[in-house]
Specification:
The protein is α+β, with helices and mostly antiparallel strands and about 300 residues long.
Length: about 300
């Protein structure tokens, strides 16, 4: 249902408490029979409730109540009882006097007589207009008060939020900042190299081992496998019952393997690395089938960073 400005102003004044007893009774009657109008009144009560939260209660001074009681008692004592005036005595009856007979004037038709209407006392339009102007002024005052309250509340939220109730305090903003720290530079690990050669001659293979990952790389320098044969790398240690195969050395210049991860650093550093010639694809049973032709032991070339 669409409500006029008068209805909205009436609801606002009811929530503000500026209506007289008759107007309040009118509003309460409308609220009892119209749920939408009742919702408008409750909405105004919610909006104007902010003003009550921002203004603290003030206890009046004791002298105020004493003045009120004194004023009530003074008006009661000074009020005189109401006495009605006595009616004057009735005059004696007058003697009848003969009135002269006069000719009656001619009767004028009713349509020809002028009709005058007394509108001097018809103030209904003026009263309605006055009430409407008053409500509009009250509505403007309420809107101004609301705007001022909102501005004041925003100012308090910005500069003095601790003065507001908990429900009106702004929630703290939590901003997550991600700080990316540069990854630490890798610490150089120790590097070991073994020259696999025969009888102190020129190296045929160069074996490089990384101490941190235990990965090794074999570089072919001056050895060529016979047709139908393969070179195979072995680890020989007195801690093992027999040599352990580290895989076939490929035909390219570099061959990389991670198989040293199964052995501890002490065994790797003290072991003897050897190369045998096996059938194509390597030893079929995991044992060397020829005498090692190239051997060598690891030496530390790059120390670990402290």
């Amino acid at each position: 249902m669409a409500y006029s400005e008068d209805h909205i102003a009436l609801a606002a004044e009811y929530a503000l408490g500026t209506l007289d007893a008759g107007e309040r009774a009118q509003v309460e009657t409308m609220m009892a029979g119209d749920t939408e109008f009742s919702a408008i009144v409750h909405a105004w009560e919610y909006r104007l409730g902010v003003l009550n939260q921002m203004v603290g209660s003030i206890e009046p001074r004791p002298i105020v109540w004493e003045n009120i009681k004194a004023a009530i008692g003074h008006s009661t004592e000074s009020q005189a009882p109401l006495v009605l005036p006595e009616a004057p005595p009735a005059p004696p009856p007058a003697e009848p006097v003969a009135e002269p007979v006069m000719a009656e004037p001619p009767v004028t038709p009713a349509a020809a007589q002028p009709v005058t209407v007394d509108n001097a006392n018809d103030n209904s339009n003026v009263i309605q207009l006055t009430g409407r102007v008053r409500r509009l002024r009250n509505l403007a005052s309420i809107a101004t008060a609301l705007a001022a309250a909102l501005v004041a509340m925003l100012a308090v939220q910005v500069y003095r939020p601790e003065l507001l109730p908990d429900a009106l305090r702004p929630k703290p903003r939590i901003q997550t900042v991600e700080v990316k720290t540069p990854a630490p530079s890798p610490v150089p690990s120790a590097q070991y190299v073994a020259l696999l050669q025969r009888d102190g001659g020129s190296p045929a293979f160069i074996l490089t081992v990384d101490a941190a990952t235990k990965n090794f790389t074999v570089r072919k320098v001056g050895a060529d496998a016979e047709p139908g044969k393969s070179f195979e790398l072995w680890l020989i240690s007195d801690k093992l019952p027999q040599p352990r195969s580290l895989g076939v050395i490929g035909g390219s210049d570099f061959t990389a393997r991670p198989v040293l991860a199964d052995y501890d650093a002490g065994m790797i550093n003290s072991a003897l690395f050897a190369v045998t010639v096996e059938q194509a694809g390597g030893s079929p049973d995991g044992k060397p089938h020829s005498t090692p032709i190239y051997t060598g032991k690891l030496i530390e070339t790059v120390p670990a960073s402290r």
